[in-house]
UniProtKB/TrEMBL annotation:
Record-linked SUPFAM superfamilies: GroES-like, NAD(P)-binding Rossmann-fold domains
GO molecular function terms attached to this record: oxidoreductase activity, acting on the CH-CH group of donors, NAD or NADP as acceptor
Protein name: NADP-dependent oxidoreductase
Any Pfam family the entry gives: ADH_N_2
Annotated ranges, domain Enoyl reductase (ER): 12-328
Length: 330
């Protein structure tokens, strides 16, 4: 079996040399263990936090120990009666080709007819995050104007479509031209942040939605947050899902200069971590799953091939090289 480790807790943007690929002979299975051939690996922005060496809402990765992450694969050997050869499962033994895990940590794939890797994206943790942030944290209401940052990514691309289905004006912030096109093709007004300061971005948001936003779904922070704060309506709600603009920062970020807007516009701003809401996953699947299966909800994937490409796929998240969910296919 082959797996990746990191050899340090990096400052700033991680370099490819941080990641080391190892090979090992796996021991025989113990009672209650299952061996899985991974077919798809997920790389996610939150993994950067686990590389910082400090405990956030989750423990840091241990150095020189196999990295973890969501993965989908097929059972090839089992010493647990709940799983048999050929079963498709989701688990946290990613960053490796063969995973050997305690059966208690495996989940059978749900039975909705979608490609299996969708359970790492639109119908997995990122999709669940979009749905939860919009409905349960921002408490989006029918007709609300909604702004989403990193709007064409794994989380953002579902958030904008869910918002569009029951909203007024939906605006997405994204980087590259093909991402803006994808948003526009789904009826979402697209605004690029590239090459703009917060004031310019704020002006563009005002033009896209002159009445202002009732909800801001925050994936980025930095200038996006500052520009959003200028454009909120009284009583707006901000769901703080992620702050990716800060994940590689070497200095603590500063508060936006217009933080007073939270007071002036009586804004509620709430962070959330999706693990705390996982009990709603069946409800999410029931509501969103059929719409993904019948094509009513669209999703994009950016796929890198081969285990060796996993660090690269991960690092590309911070360059905006992915449209939709970033995945590694084994
Ligand atoms: P994405 O698929 O959205 O990939 C990351 C995207 O972020 C990039 O494609 C890029 O898009 C954008 N981006 C990267 N760096 C910057 C930057 N410096 N400034 C502006 N945009 C940037 O990832 P996910 O959908 O998986 O995650 C989106 C956010 O949600 C992240 O912040 C993540 O940490 C958070 N999250 C939080 C969870 C929770 O429980 N709270 C759970 C899951 C995700 P572009 O080209 O548009 O710049």
């Amino acid at each position: 079996a082959r797996y990746f480790t990191i050899n340090d807790y990096p400052q700033g943007t991680p370099q490819p040399e941080l990641f080391e690929l190892h090979s090992t002979e796996l021991p025989g299975l113990k009672d209650g263990e299952v061996r899985i051939r991974n077919t798809w690996l997920s790389v996610d922005p939150y993994m950067r936090g686990r590389m910082s060496g400090v405990t956030t809402y989750v423990e840091p990765f241990e150095l020189n120990t196999p990295l973890e992450g969501a993965a989908v694969g097929e059972v090839i050997e089992s010493r647990d009666q709940r799983f048999k050869q050929g079963d498709k499962v989701r688990h946290m033994g990613g960053w490796r080709d063969i995973a050997q895990l305690d059966a208690d940590t495996l989940e059978p794939l749900p039975s909705i007819e979608v490609p299996e890797q969708a359970y790492l994206g639109v119908l997995g943790m990122p999709g669940m995050t979009a749905w939860t942030g919009l409905n349960k944290i921002a408490e989006m209401r029918e007709g609300d104007n909604v702004l989403v940052s990193a709007a064409s990514g794994a989380v953002g691309s579902l958030a904008v479509q869910l918002a569009k289905a029951k909203g007024g004006t939906v605006v997405g912030i994204a980087g590259a031209p093909d991402k803006l096109e994808w948003l526009e093709s789904h009826g979402i007004k697209a605004v690029s942040y590239r090459g703009k300061n917060a004031q310019q971005l704020s002006d563009d948001l005002k033009q896209a939605c002159p009445d202002g936003f009732d909800v801001y779904y925050e994936n980025v922070g930095g200038d996006c947050l500052e520009a959003a704060l200028d454009n909120l309506r009284v009583g707006a709600r901000i769901a703080v899902c992620g702050l990716i603009a800060d994940y590689n920062a070497t200095k603590p970020s500063t508060a936006p200069g217009n933080l007073a807007m939270i007071l002036i516009r009586r804004v509620r701003m709430q962070g959330f971590i999706i693990f705390d809401h996982w009990s709603h996953y069946p409800q999410f699947l029931e509501e969103v799953g059929p719409k993904v299966a019948n094509g009513e909800i669209d999703y994009e994937e950016t796929i890198e091939d081969g285990l060796e490409s996993t660090p690269d796929a991960f690092l590309k998240l911070f360059e905006g090289a992915n449209k939709g969910k970033m995945l590694v296919r084994l």
